[in-house]
Amino acid sequence: MAHKFFFLSFCCFPLLMLPASASAKILDRDSIVQRELDCFAQNSQDKGDLDWQDVCAMNVAPARNEALQVVAAGPLDDYLQEPLEEHTQEPAAPVKKSKKAPAPVLEESFHAEDHEESAPDLWRRVNYKYAHFYQNPDKFLDLETSLDVGMRWDKLQWNIADLDNNPNILSELTWDDVHSFSVATRGDLAVDKKYVFDWSGGYAWIYEGDNQDSDYAGNGRTLEFSRSNNSADIGHMLDLSAGGGVRVTLAGEDSHAVKDYLMVDELSLDFLAGYAYNEQKYYMTNGNQTIPASGGFPGLKSHYYATWRSPWLGLQVKGQRNRVRGFFRTEFHWADYYGKANWNLRSDFKHPKSYEHEGDGYGVVLGGGGSYLMTPNWSIDLTTKFQYWYVEDGIDRTFFSNGTTLETGLNEVKWTSATIALGNTIHF
């Protein structure tokens, strides 16, 4: 062990002496620079044409990074080749003004330990590169795509009236507290920072939920004569959307006023239009009759299938500060609704389509989230999405097993959905 310690000490001692010798050399150069500047200022005082490019006032012991900037300029090599002489008060010979180009500034490639860059300065410099990587002025196409996984909660409710609207609510179905596991993808393509195309798709597998089927004899949900409370633990949801529009950059390379006021590196508005398709398939299983309270009944596996087709208009705001990015998005949809069902235990209904629903309505979709850039091309994301859809004054069309059809009013359909997801984005 002793000979190993002696060997390591012998090898490392010259390395430990390097910083001290480098610092001493820097201080020697500082003294030389100070002496020459004093003489230059004294001899040029009467001319009145002195500017900052001719002299640079320095302290005797400036910060090490400032000394390195002077050393890197280069002209001191001529002084260092001459021996250091004592400073005298005798005026020096007139110095002819140099027309050399300004001294070059140290490149950012210098390591922090070379010029003792403070940790906050180093952090800001690194974050600057991340903040501007996707706003390259020469980048004509800007593509990013995301993959998210998360949890989703849905509720669907509809009710119909009797033939003469008495009662005004004859039957009502509700799928409530429907939990599902979701996987979604998003994409965004910007062309010349002026035009944008985006798309999204998601699929969710239901694993838990409740269903209630109620029938009434009186108006306003009164005189309830039948109710079953069932399970809704299987089914799925599908969401697809695509659109395009124009992008307006509010803060970026050429918008320093807005950029400084809002304290962001990038900020843009996307005015979008597109088309969306949404579907839900809910099942009713594990039947349990609660009014009258006759208990469970076997064989229940009815399902309801709903689709929403809708053109939409939207607005999206995207911003970035250092490594943190965020967005907020809103869409308004004009919905064309269609639903159909198979009531498997009703022998008087036709199968596989027992009845269908048609109607027009609207939908509001809100989304937002944030991401953190782990590398210039990859970020970790947290996103949320909320949807509210509504249809009223539609048509309920029932198909009986004897071949007859009965139409009545579809009062309303309500669908709400909320999603929270964790994912990642790749930037090309």
Summarize this structure as a short list of keywords or feature phrases.
10-stranded antiparallel barrel; single chain; Lipocalin; 2 domains; 428 residues
Question: Topology of this protein?
Answer:
Blueprint: H1 2-43, H2 64-73, H3 76-80, H4 112-115, H5 119-131, E1 141-160, E2 171-191, E3 195-218, E4 222-231, E5 235-251, H6 256-262, E6 266-285, E7 288-291, E8 295-296, E9 301-321, E10 324-342, E11 355-375, E12 378-399, E13 405-427
Antiparallel strand pairs: 1-2, 1-13, 2-3, 3-4, 3-5, 4-7, 5-6, 6-9, 7-8, 9-10, 10-11, 11-12, 12-13
Helix pairs in contact: 1-2
Outline the structure in words.
Helix content is 19%, strand content 52%. The chain is built from six helices and 13 strands. The protein has 428 residues and is α+β, with helices and mostly antiparallel strands. The longest helix has 42 residues, at 2-43. The model is unreliable at 1-27, 51-88, 103-115 and 128-135 (pLDDT under 50).
How many domains in all? 2
Would you count the extended β strands for me? 13
The total count of helices amounts to 6
* Head-to-tail CA distance between termini: 54 Å
What is the residue-averaged pLDDT? 79
Order of helices and strands: HHHHHEEEEEHEEEEEEEE
The outline comes out as: elongated
The largest beta-sheet arranges its strands as 1-2-3-5-6-9-10-11-12-13
Question: Would you state the CATH class of the largest domain?
Answer: Mainly Beta
The percentage helix is 10-25%
Named at the architecture level, the CATH assignment of the largest domain is Beta Barrel
**What is the rounded Rg?**
37 Å
Q: CATH homologous superfamily name of the largest domain? A: OMPT-like
Q: Report the structural category.
A: alpha+beta
Biggest sheet details? 10 strands, antiparallel, barrel
Q: Would you give the CATH topology of the largest domain?
A: Lipocalin
Spans where pLDDT lies below 50 across 5 or more residues: 1-27, 51-88, 103-115, 128-135
Strand percentage lies at over 45%
